[in-house]
Amino acid sequence: MNKRNLLSWLVVVFTPIFLMGQSISGTISSEDKPLVGANIVIEGSDIGTVSSVDGAFSVEVPAGEHNVVASFIGYSSTTKVVVVDSIDVVVDFSLGIDAIAMTALEVLASRADETTPVAYTTVDKAEMEIRLGSQDIPMILNTTPSVYATNQGGGAGDARINVRGFNQRNVAVMINGVP
Length: 179
Fold this sequence. Notes:
Structural class: alpha+beta
CATH superfamily of the largest domain: Immunoglobulins
Strand content: 25-35%
Oligomer: single chain
Helix content: 10-25%
């Protein structure tokens, strides 16, 4: 076999090894639990993937040095430098929880009163007791100005109420501030 044939034979045999894509694979976890759907991106390229249900991932990359970034919502991102030669590389990531601190939450409530630019009527406990008898509450409110209530089916709780022409879906009836 002459040198030219030997060189051709070596090129044919070893070319597929160098042309095959190498891969970076591994797992992404946090505190011994896999992170499903975590992002794995090769920095500076459009190559990336997401982790599977067991936190495993595999991404095909060309040979060379790559910055591999692993990230997941609610966890701090981690970057590792990986050198890929002719063999596949295994890299495992463990992400730490990155809690986002929020400011204090303040809940405010208000009631209609004389200064509120909304029409309202307050029916106190004594007046309710006088009117109640065996009627439904909407029927008790029937004597309040601009309120119209009707019994629908004849059973308890079937009364319908209209206030100033609006049906009961558009009217807030509150008892001690509770709808």
